[in-house]
Amino acid sequence: MITSLSIKNYALIEKLSIDFSKGFSIITGETGAGKSIILGALGLIQGKRADLSSIKNKDEKCVIEAHFEIAKYHLASFFKENDIDYESDTIIRREILPSGKSRAFINDSPVNLQLLQELSLFLIDIHSQQQTRELSDENVQFEIIDAIAKNHSVILEYQLDLSTYKSNKSKLNSLIKKQADALKEQEYHTFLWKELVAANLKPDEQEILEADFEQLNNVEIIKESLDKSLAIANEEQIGVLQNLKEIKAILQKITPFSLDYAALVERISSVLIEFDDITQELNRCADKLINDPEQLELLNQKLQLLYNLQKKHQVDSISGLLEIQSQLGASVAELENLETDIAQLTDAVQEKERVLDHLAIQIHDNRAKAIPILSQKLITILDTLGMPNVRFDIQIKQTKAYLANGKDEMQFLFAANKGTDFGLLKKVASGGEMSRIMLAVKAILAHYSKLPTLIFDEIDTGVSGEIAIKMGEIMKEMSQTMQIFAITHLPQIAAKGNAHFKVFKSTVGEATQSELKLLTNEERVVEIAQMLSGTVVSDSALNHAKALLN
């Protein structure tokens, strides 16, 4: 419950601090006195967007602070999950700076507006005419029935499975599309891949092939050069080898005369050894050199194949071709794996459908049992609110679609009078009827779910007299288990409250400001009398006010 509210520098309020009690509290005041300002301040506590124009003094910051007693709300886990200090007396504060920047705090910990909005759902519910219109929304209608049907845990389990189902379904559809796209190119990719595999590519093969081809293609020139070299080297009279031997023999004769000559002989010997080895290598090259046109043609074909493949795939090396071959192979293998993945996901999706169908039936059956209970309770309460002939026909029908809260579609049909046909609630119920129906709904839900502090903002629109008294009695009964506020213009409702606050305007100097005051018993009699008779209070109005309060 909300225990206190302080407002500083907001709209027409310069500074205000007020304490609240449990039970049923009334807020009254002339039109324009500032009741909407109080609701606006509470809206900021709920995490609604701040407006710089709401600041009274533009040079100072605006501060709204509310204290909530939450010991019975079981919110410790919420605070722990969001890393906020838990206090049974929780303080929510909003600040609007002159720059327009807004800040929010829970127990002095800075938080974002989304977190503040989530917490406020557990703390305060402002019921306005807008929310009465929301009663026509199918989602709101389902929330009402599901509260009575105690479907919360089943729907939560359903929604968790639905999230997994949607994720798997999305992945499955993506894989099926990928498979369809891949199948269009599979034949061509497979052809390209097999073509590269058939080429039996090896790293560095191209350089070897090109060298072998050049050698075979120029075998005559090479053979002629090798033969001439061997002839020069091995000629008996003038060959290089013979001449080197003669030079060595001549120099050996003079080695005794100088170490330099001995060194020269040694160097000539080294040259002889090296040149002899060169000559032998020339012989080996000449021996293995053959003119093989068939081998030359095979080399030419293999090289042309490599060049064509490189041109086709726009690369300039065998390593580039091997990389493409690997990619194409992976693509071909991936298509085969896709079929396995699709089969597995299909099984997972079908299994989730079975689980969801089972839970949806459970949700549907619970709703079917709850609908007669809701209808009867609504009829009973509305009878006391001046709608004795009201009837409801709430129809639910299972569909094939997996919706956010099950597989049901709903028609919330309503008839206010005897002899009238049923129609959709949003089309046939008047504003006054919708207000009474919403009050009845809130009164019923108070027994099935733990509602937060509830503020009725002029829910009495369109009613008066005895009906207003009954509405006040219903709200007072609700206040036995929860904190209720009613902003009202009706004295019949105002008289039912445990506490009565008045919003009024006052003039301080040249400025007008709004104030909120807890009325004493005497002030309350006068206030209700004024609500009955206007500004001039008569004795009969005072007596009537006392009678209502008693």
Automatic annotation (TrEMBL):
GO terms for molecular function: ATP binding. Keywords: ATP-binding, Coiled coil, DNA damage, DNA repair, Nucleotide-binding. Residues 328-362 form a coiled coil. Residues 2-507 form the RecF/RecN/SMC N-terminal domain. Gene3D superfamilies: P-loop containing nucleotide triphosphate hydrolases. GO terms for biological process: DNA recombination; DNA repair; SOS response. It holds the Pfam family SMC_N. One of its GO terms (cellular component) is bacterial nucleoid. Belongs to the RecN family. May be involved in recombinational repair of damaged DNA. This is DNA repair protein RecN. It comes from Flavobacterium crassostreae.
